[in-house]
Amino acid sequence: MKRDQSPVLPGDGPTDYARYMRTDELLDLQRRPEEMLHRDELLFQVVHQSAELWLKLAGAELTAAVARTEAADPLAATALLARATLAVRLVTDQLAMFGHLSPVDFQAMQPALGNGSGAESPGWRQVASVSRQLGRAFAEQLTARGDTLRTLPPGDPTHRLATAMIAWDEQVAQWRARHYQVALAVGGHPPDGSPGSPATVLAKLTEHRFFPELRPTRPDTDLAAATHSRPAEA
């Protein structure tokens, strides 16, 4: 007997998949062909809209990691932070799609973007804000324990959280560096050097870290070395 697949969920859509995933709304968020100045607007929007979704997930995982850190549960915080790190890795990987977008084509579609800038991304602003919260929560937990980075044994759960925080910082840095390369190759920006230019701002951001204090100068206490012994999502 054929299983009844009639939708049972509320909402619009011919199937429960369409209703749960809200595919009608999702697939209507891109400009229609008749609205486009250039066909590659679809590529441009899909990359950026999907990035916002991944950043939304990363922000949610980071927020939960802050709560677990404040609750003195570093193992749970480490697992959540690994999920956020993987989300940003996927955001970074999809920038490869811009290898199919030439500077000439980007210039043709640029009027459609108005004065928009990636710096205005709500997902990124949320991620940056919560990353700073995580840094404060971690520092407070160290103080509450009466520990420092130098006194944390390698197997300690808090040491593992610090390692995951370094991995997060490095993945964000890779994303920024890749974004900078795309801006030069596709966006038509000149190399950095001109004060206030988009390329100069992006170049400086590639050196930024949310948790620079997690990189002590003494080799025997360098938590960064641990990031090379396990995957970023571990």
Your description of this structure?
InterPro entries: Trp/Indoleamine_2_3_dOase-like, Trp_2_3_dOase. It comes from Micromonospora matsumotoense. This is Tryptophan 2,3-dioxygenase. One of its GO terms (molecular function) is L-tryptophan 2,3-dioxygenase activity. The protein folds into 2 domains: 1-30, no CATH class; 39-229, Methane Monooxygenase Hydroxylase, Chain G, domain 1, CATH 1.20.58.480. It contains 8 helices and no strands. 55% of the residues lie in helices and 0% in strands. The protein is mainly alpha-helical. Helix 4 (74-93) packs parallel to helix 7 and helix 7 packs antiparallel against helix 8 (198-205).
Uncertain runs: 217-234
Using DSSP, what is the number of strands?
Answer: 0
Run of helices and strands: HHHHHHHH
Average per-residue pLDDT, rounded, comes to: 86
What best-fitting shape do the alpha-carbon axes yield? flat
Strand content: under 5%
Tell me the name of the CATH class of the largest domain. Answer: Mainly Alpha
CATH topology of the largest domain: Methane Monooxygenase Hydroxylase, Chain G, domain 1
Q: What is the CATH architecture descriptor of the largest domain? A: Up-down Bundle
Largest sheet: none
Helix % is 40-55%
Q: Total domains, how many?
A: 2
Number of helices: 8
Rg over CA atoms, rounded to whole Å, is 21 Å
Distance from N terminus to C terminus (CA atoms, Å) equals 45 Å
GO molecular function: heme binding; L-tryptophan 2,3-dioxygenase activity; metal ion binding
Pfam family, one: Trp_dioxygenase
Region (Disordered): 214-234
Protein name: Tryptophan 2,3-dioxygenase
